Write a sequence for this structure.
């Protein structure tokens, strides 16, 4: 299962070549969303309120994805994860 708007057969094939048959890692790489990139039309400086709110949005998004994906695929074990780079370079990231 992949995010439709982020899916490209060629890219996924490349990830399988690079990561071997680790399907979970390929899926996580191909389905991750960097929240800062999603809100790319908004400046994210230290003084900007959105820069403080994205880390709070990420866990809420994780819960939503977990519920929707679990409901759509009840026969699969779904894991949705939130991460954040220590240096803040990518901000919060959500993947499944």
């Amino acid at each position: 299962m992949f995010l439709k708007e982020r899916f490209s057969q060629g890219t996924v094939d490349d990830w399988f070549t690079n990561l071997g048959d680790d399907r979970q890692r390929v899926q996580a790489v191909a389905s991750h969303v960097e929240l800062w990139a999603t809100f790319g039309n908004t400046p994210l400086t230290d003084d900007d309120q959105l820069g403080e709110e994205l880390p709070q949005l990420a866990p809420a998004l994780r819960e939503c994805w977990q519920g929707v994906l679990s409901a759509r695929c009840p026969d699969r074990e779904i894991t949705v994860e939130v991460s954040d780079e220590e240096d803040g370079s990518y901000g919060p990231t959500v993947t499944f």
